[in-house]
Amino acid sequence: MVRPDYALEEFQEERQQLIVEGLTEAQAIRTLTALWQVNNNAEKARWATRLERQDLRDEEEATCLEDRKKNKNKYAPLKRTKVPTNPTILPAQYAIRRLKAGDYCELYYFTNKGLDNAMASALIAEPDALVMLPAMDGIHSWVPAAAVKDPKAPPVTKDEHLTWEEFNEAAPHIVMFMKMHDWPDDRVNMHIKFWMAIQAHRWRHSPDLLQQKALLLYQSQQ
Q1: Torsion 107-102-189-210 (CA) sign
Q2: Which of 154, 174, 152 is nearest to 105 (CA)?
Q3: Which of the residue ranges 15-19, 72-76, 79-83, 131-135 has the most confident prediction, judged by mean pLDDT?
Q4: 153-172 pLDDT, tens digit each
Q5: What is the pLDDT of residues 22-69, one digit of tens each?
Q6: How far, in Å, CA of 32 to CA of 11, rounded?
């Protein structure tokens, strides 16, 4: 800023206030000039501090921007998703095809052992292998070989020969897959109520193993 000339007529009022206090006009001019210089120096210091802070902020922003460019994954927005509840291990494709069609499928495929076998088979199967199957309308169609029960495969455990532990594994698994494949709610609830009734039956914890097996046999025939 340009220092004002306090000897000019426009500053007469400021000079007069000091003259009233006992200063001469020359002393009043020097005093006003000195006060202006002090204020001007203080303003320069404040301005320099603001510039310095702004330079620091600009430097930090530039550094942060450069870091964002180099490390994009570090600043990638987080997706707020629900904890997954669907199973990561799928049953055999044969079982899935039967379940989608609403056909009977052995509970064994939904036991822990059945799911483990399905995962092991998926790792060694040929994904492009196809077989031809007739549909209900008589028209043949190609389906993945894995979706067809291998006639050479060892027989799976029948429902009535499952252990109670295997039954307890399979029931919640198959219900989950029913929901995944859009089974009607009333059908899903019907199975849930039936299996809960089996679990709550007094023979379930009977000391007579034949009574326990009879429940599993009854369940398998429904």
Answers
A1: negative
A2: 174
A3: 15-19
A4: 567 889 999 999 999 999 99
A5: 888 888 888 888 888 888 888 888 899 888 888 888 888 888 888 878
A6: 10
Closest CA to 92 of 74, 103, 108: 108
Residue 217 has pLDDT above 60, yes or no: yes
Structure tokens, 104? 């009977």
Work out the average pLDDT over 215-219.
Answer: 86
Tell me phi and psi for residue 125, to 5 degrees. -75, 155
For residue 73, how many C-alpha atoms fall within 13 Å in the half-sphere facing its CB? 0
Kindly state the tokens that stand for 26.
Answer: 């020359």
* Interacting residues of 125 by C-beta distance below 8 A, sequence separation 6+: 145, 146
Q: Considering only 44-58, 91-105, 137-151, which range has the smallest mean pLDDT?
A: 137-151
d(CA 85, CA 8): 86
> For the chain, what is the HEC assignment?
CCCCCCCCHHHHHHHHHHHHCCCCHHHHHHHHHHHHHHHHHHHHHHHHHHHHHHHHHHHHHHHHHHHHHHCHHHHCCCCCCCCCCCCCCCCCHHHHHHHHHCCCCCHHHHCHHHHHHHHHHHHHCCCCCEEEEECCCCCEEEEEHHHCCCCCCCCCCCHHHCCHHHHHHHHHHHHHHHHHCCCCHHHHHHHHHHHHHHHHCHHHHCCCHHHHHHHHHHHHCC
pTM of the model: 0.51
